[in-house]
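Curious: explain these C-alpha cells?
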Amino acid sequence: MIFASNHISFIDSVILPAVLDRRISFLAKSDYFTGRGLKGWATKTFFNAIGQLPIDRSGGKASEASLRTGLQVLARGEQLGIYPEGTRSPDGKLYRGRTGIARMILEGRVTVVPVAMIGTREVQQIGQKIPKAKRVGVVFGKPLDFSRFAGFETDRFILRSVTDEVMHELAGLSRQEYVDVYATSVKERATSAREQVMKDRRTPAAAAPEATAADR
C-alpha cells in the first residue's frame, strides 16, 4: 500500500510513521545520507531509524532506479510513503504531482491512501532548525483503487490522470491552494532571483557621465 502525502515540513516524515501501526518506508534524497562529521552521522542514523531510503533525484536513470526501489518495497508487502510533489512546498501551497507515483501504483498493483498533513509547516518551516511546539493533524482519505488502468503503466495520459486524481484528493483533504506547476520549478525561479539580487549587489553601479559644456 502507498500513502501519498502533501509535504509542507521536514517533520512530515516523522509525524506520519508515528501515527501508523506498521512501519513505513519513505524515499528520501540521498544528500541526507552522505553528510560528513557528527551532524552527517546523526542525520543518516535518524533517517535510517524512521525507514527512509536514499534515492538520487537527479532525473533520468536515477529516477528509474528510484522507481525500482519503491517497487521493491511494495513487492515485499511493506508500506511506502510518497510525496507526489517531489519536494517540500516552498510556501504552503499544493503543487503539481510527479507521475512517478502513478507508475508505482499501476506497476505495483496497489491501492493508495491520500494523507494530508495539517499544521506541520507552522511547527518547522524550510530553514528553521528548531521546531516549535504546535498542534498538528493528520487526515487520511479513502483508499483509491486504480486497477481499472492495469496494463497502461507506460501510457503518459493515464499516468497523468492517475496522478492528478491523487492530487485532487489531497487538495480536498488538506484544503491547500492548488497550483498546477511543479514545486521544483518555483524553487528554481526563487533561487535564480536571489542569485541575481546578490550579483547586482556585488556589481558596482556605473558612474554617471560627467556633464559636457553643451549640457551646462
User: Anything to note?
Assistant: The two ends are 80 Å apart (CA to CA). The mean pLDDT is 85.
